[in-house]
Every structure is written in C-alpha cells, then in structure tokens.
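My current task is to audit a protein record that another person submitted. Please read both lines and tell me whether the tokens look consistent with the sequence. Do not assume that whoever made the record got everything right. I have pasted the whole thing underneath without changing anything:

===
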Amino acid sequence: MLAMLFLMFGMYFNSMLSKHAAFEMQFALRHATPIASSLIFYQNEATTACYNVATNKITCPAGQIALPNRTGSDPSMAYGKAFRSYTDGQNFIATTLIGPSVGGVPINKRGLDWLMDSLNRQMSYSVTVGYYNAESGQIILSNTGSSQVQQERFTGQLPGQLYDGQPVLLNNYTHEDLIGP
C-alpha cells in the first residue's frame, strides 16, 4: 500500500515538474542549442567552401552545396539528412533544415521559438537569421538590424518544398533586390 502511494506521488510530482518553466528551458537548451549550433556550423562550412574573399564572389554553381558531415554528429543530425546548404551561384548562400523534425525534436511553433532565440543569440549581423512563412510565401528575416516596423523579407528562391516555420541562415552578398519590406 505504501509502495502504491509512493508511485502515485512520484507520477504526480513528475507531471507537475514537466510543466514547470525551468523544465521547458532545460528542454530548449538541450535540443534547440545543438540544432542551432549545427545550422551555424554548416552555414560557416558552406561559406568557406563557396565564397572567395579575395574576389568577393561566390565560387560554387547554383544548387545544393556538397559538404561533409560534422565530426561526431549524431546520424539523425547529419548533413544531407537534417541540414542542407544552397547557393544561387551569385548572390546568396543559405543553410536550412530539411524537414520539420531534427533528431526527433519537432520544429513546431514552440520549437521554432526556441531555435530562433538560440540562433539570434549566437549570430552576428554577418549572417541573417530567418524563417519561411507559408502565408506570405517568403522568408522573414529576424536579425537584420532594421529599425523599420515592417519585417524585412528575403525574396530569393530556395529550391525544394519549404514548410511553414522552416529556419534559414543566410549570407546575402548583394543586398539589391533580395531583401526588402
């Protein structure tokens, strides 16, 4: 009888703890931060592989950029399985998630908020952080440093089917025509 009482108390305590804000923050740090870190890693690798600083030009042809997996990464978070980088060959290099779930973590509204927060805290203005908005059909940029009330949008095209809330890291080398209100 006492064992049953402890079991019931433990189940109740566990359910209360899992709804606590500190538990959610710990969950966010354990899951959003590694995904954000990998997005940043692959964006840096794509930029290193495809951008020539001396000529100020993108050197890769348009399309997906071939990159090796991050050393020690979990297979569920491998390049080509969870992450992909693209270029149009002239103006931008972008890295994004392939699907709405990475390593078993769904990138739903709450997951996107945690991920965007983590990306914005880790990034400088040299790389723009954004997400695909299905309603507008565009990528909304969140850390452009713009003082405009209206959010800026990336109007370039990424290949493939994009999903609502899909995070995107972007290096835009020509700010003409590709970023606007």
About this structure: Residues 21-50 form the longest helix (30 residues). The first strand starts at residue 51 and ends at 52.
